Amino acid sequence: MKKVIKIVSILFIILFFSSCGEEETIGLVEFGDLTGIVVEKEGFIPLENVKIILSPTNNTVFTDAEGNFIFEGVEAQEYSVQAVKEGYLDKYEGATVSAEVDVNIVFEMDISTALNKPPTKPELITPEDGSLDLLSEVELSWESTDVDEDELTFTLEVRNDFNNEVTRITDLKDKSYTLSDLKYGAKYFWSIAVTDDINAEVISGIRSFKVKDDPSNRYFYVKKVGGNNVIYSASFNDETNEVLDIVQLTDSSLNSWRPRKNNIINLVAFLRIDDNKAHIYTMSANGDNVKKITSAIPLSGFSLNEMDFSWSPDGSKLLYSSFNKLYAINRDGSGLEQVYETLDGSLITECDWSGDGSKIAIKTNNENGYNGSILIIDFNRNTLNTVVSGVEGALGGLNFSASGSKLLFTRDISNFQATNYRQLNTRMFIYDLVDMTFLDVSDDEKEDGTNDLDPRFSPNEANIIFVNTSNDGISQKNITITNLSGNIQRKILFIDASMPDWE
């Protein structure tokens, strides 16, 4: 019996001291600590204030500024640990807590969009790559999708082959965009970038297209832009009374006026100031290939705005005046020759070359623009016909009919004279060279207090295009058309425009 008591006492003492040496064990249950750190997966930046949930106990702690967290004195067993933070994907890790081993967990958290897929690479649809002869207005279209149905934003980038300019149209939501006022004869390159504001931008391939070389416009005219004369071309739809395909042909920073088109060589001649002198230039119908023609002898005389010049019928030469002399020059600037000279020193202000090339109409006047005459001469310097002479009021607007049998011109029948060359009642007349009669074209429709100026025959000679404006000399000018037979009616074609040409 004493032996049994002694054995029990020894066991009790062993258990007592064993319990004292294991502070984290209560009875048969063990406890330990669970520590960890939370970082952003990209860059391993510590994340603060991340909620750490321990399951199955649902105990919760938050990370400190260094991303660290700790669960102290948790029961030794297997746990699921969850890291939660707004803007990031939840992260789970397993952990086994024991009394003998420190347990440390590292959470690498992805931002909430980490699993988001980028949009598909934009597919360029229209126009077809390498398309040719397009109009100056082109609709671009493309396609791109997003499997996550994120809202897509597009950026269009356009380059060209004539300068280094890059056009970027941003924040597009539609999958199409219309480019307008494109340069005729130019080649354009375009691409699309798409973003879902989550993933990196996705960029398409590059396509190209070319705008047709010639706008095929038949009307040319001048508008004032910032104090300069600027030349435009356009078309006009007679059925809808709509102006179409307006093209600015000359630079707004340069003073260019009096366009004259020759259809045979498809060039437009015009006047431009260079070194304070007026010279003849030519350009393609789209405004390209500008060349200076005159050099040694510029256009000079009464009022550069009133002066006019003419193509030869075949487009090989240009006819122009300087003071009292008339010159012809080849269209490449060579072969300058004097054609005519007034005997009385009168200034030659306008000229027109007949379609058969046999004769020239000239308008002469004094230094004030008055005492005017209209003469028809040949290349032997003979005067074939004196249409009018010694006119007190203003004259102008010379234009032969295609056959050369009729001459269109204007005359201020009020015979008014003023230092500023104001005209009070300028009307259009057609002179018949065969029967030597005059037709007052303005007789039926011209309103009182207005002037009809700068007339030109239409290509089929059934109509006349001209400028109508108030006689106050400062009001808006409108390019107008009138028919020559039947029910005479006027119609405005181009508002706030002047110096028309119709070829």
Task: Give a description of the structure.
This protein is mostly beta strands and 503 residues long. The chain folds into three domains: 24-109, Immunoglobulins (Immunoglobulin-like), CATH 2.60.40.10; 123-211, Immunoglobulins (Immunoglobulin-like, Sandwich); 219-502, Neuraminidase (6 Propeller), CATH 2.120.10. It is 4% helix and 50% strand. The protein is built from one helix and 41 strands. Strands 10, 12, 13, 15, 16 and 17 form a six-stranded mixed sheet that branches. Strands 1, 2, 5 and 8 form a four-stranded mixed sheet that branches. It is rod-shaped and about 135 Å long.
What's the CATH first level of the largest domain?
Answer: Mainly Beta
Q: How many helical stretches?
A: 1
Indicate the mean pLDDT.
93
CATH architecture of the largest domain: 6 Propeller
Describe the secondary structure blueprint for this structure:
Blueprint: H1 2-21, E1 25-26, E2 29-40, E3 51-55, E4 59-62, E5 68-75, E6 78-84, E7 91-96, E8 103-109, E9 123-126, E10 131-134, E11 138-143, E12 153-160, E13 167-172, E14 176-179, E15 187-195, E16 202-203, E17 207-211, E18 219-225, E19 228-237, E20 242-248, E21 256-262, E22 267-274, E23 277-284, E24 291-292, E25 310-311, E26 317-322, E27 325-330, E28 337-341, E29 347-353, E30 360-365, E31 372-377, E32 383-391, E33 395-400, E34 406-412, E35 426-432, E36 437-440, E37 450-457, E38 463-470, E39 477-483, E40 490-494, E41 498-502
Parallel strand pairs: 2-8, 10-17
Antiparallel strand pairs: 1-2, 2-5, 3-4, 3-6, 6-7, 9-11, 11-14, 12-13, 12-15, 15-16, 15-17, 18-19, 18-41, 19-20, 21-22, 22-23, 23-24, 25-26, 26-27, 27-28, 29-30, 30-31, 31-32, 33-34, 34-35, 35-36, 37-38, 38-39, 39-40
